[in-house]
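Give me structure tokens for this 217-residue protein.
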Amino acid sequence: SGQLNARAAFVSLYVMGPVGFGIGVFVFGQPARLGATLFLLHFVKRIVECSCIHIYSSPMDKFTTMYLALCYIVIGMIFAFDLTLATPSSQPFGGSDVAVPWTVLWALGEAINGFHHWLLSKLRRRNGKAAEENLLQSEYSLPVGGLFGKLLFPHYMGEMLAWFATAAIVNRGGVWGLNFFMLGVQCGRCSAGRQWYVEKFGEEAIATRSNIIPGVF
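Here you go.
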């Protein structure tokens, strides 16, 4: 079969980030501790979410899984290269004095992302118990709670805040490039997701909600 269990597939994908990072450390040398810690904690969080929180409606095809796994290995290696102490390292954007605020912004972004992932999982549960076998039914409702009253995709906003803060701490070209690439990908996902909501519920139902930036986008 060309399909994989979605939970196992997503967990394996996010494992590849640390794997790529480990390969990069072996090749390029010891990384700066703060950036390395934030990078690895992000993937630990995603692995826990995929294992214990997310509910999946369909399997994942093998080609997509392998392609994305390769992408995460490359991402891990880019972070390892930019964080290596074997090459001249940069101070966090704005100087070392703002490393703490950037770290707080990272934590805030990860918290926003994780909390709204949890809210979405509640939406997909019935009677407090996961019912993945029933998710293909047509019933669906607009997410509520947290920032969902103002945004359609607050979990994307949280993730991009965390990645931006990580890029500011690392402050190297490769990681900044990845950050802006991922921002573009998330904006595309938001646009496609908003169109799905319009088709499902109508424009009026989501007219007061922005995508990921309140009042802007």
